[in-house]
Amino acid sequence: MEIGIAGVVFVVSYLLGSISFGRVVARRLDPDVDLDHVEMPIEGVDEAYQLESIGGNTVSMKFGGRVGCLVGWLDIFKAFIPTLAVRLIYPDQPYVFVAAIAALIGHNWPISYRFKGGRGISPFYGGLFVIDPIGAVVVAFSSMLIGMVILEELLFAYTGGVFLLLPWMLITKFSEPVYIVYAVIVNVLFIIALIPEIRQIRDLRKKYGKQDMAADMQEFPMGRSMLKMMEKFRLRKTTVVSDEE
Which of 6, 100, 129, 205 is the most buried (most CB within 10 A)? Predict the structure, then answer.
């Protein structure tokens, strides 16, 4: 791997990843919208959860689930496209990992927005779908199943795919160390980005204990969509889910 090429790949992928589609879409719909102070109510308590990141979930609180999903897909593609391009141009070189990681860093810490971005779930999957498409599907569905059905933990259902990536790579790519290194780097970056959410959840649980997962999911449009999917596949008993988007 040549350092010069790796540097160019990193810079281009970082700049693409730093495009904040949450801000772009939101301001097209409402130029006066403030995404820096969005709160998600918590049922049964007097406090609200402060959304620290700028991404699909934050936008969905302002404009509904459809707009939030649109932002999520745009964030997936801004990592998928440069990673795929690098794979096609340099099919036998590890530049593809540089592209995927750089897009993730750009999303989480965009230079044009004072390094305040998202948490990286969408660009993570965008890059992983190029690097290991089967792995992307496996860790995504496994995290949802474990988080929703076994742990009943919303945060893991949404983010667990990142944490499941390392064991998946150890099982399937053990003889290819670059995949293991990629998984470790992604986990480290994601944990650093997730620290504000972890602190909030810790403090709220100290005060109020663990909340019901379904009640939490009812509070934001994309969560309600996940509940509907669970019920469709009979992973959870039917609940009253608002259709308001």
Answer: 100
- Residuewise pLDDT in 10s, the chain (245 residues): 789 999 999 999 999 999 999 899 999 998 888 887 777 766 666 666 667 778 888 888 888 888 888 999 999 999 999 999 999 999 989 999 999 999 999 999 999 888 888 888 999 999 999 999 999 999 998 988 888 778 777 778 778 899 999 999 999 998 899 999 999 999 999 999 888 777 777 776 676 566 555 555 555 555 666 666 666 656 555 444 444 44
Q: Are 59 and 71 in contact (CB under 8 A)?
A: yes
Instruction: Specify whether the CB–CB gap between 67 and 25 falls below 8 A.
Output: yes
132 contacts 179 by C-beta, under 8 angstroms? yes
> Helix, strand or coil for residue 51?
strand
Q: Please name the residue that has the structure tokens 């036998």.
A: 92
Q: Please provide the size of the chain in residues.
A: 245
Q: How many CA atoms lie within 13 A of 42 on its CB side?
A: 19
Residue 142 has φ and ψ, to the nearest 5°, of -65, -40
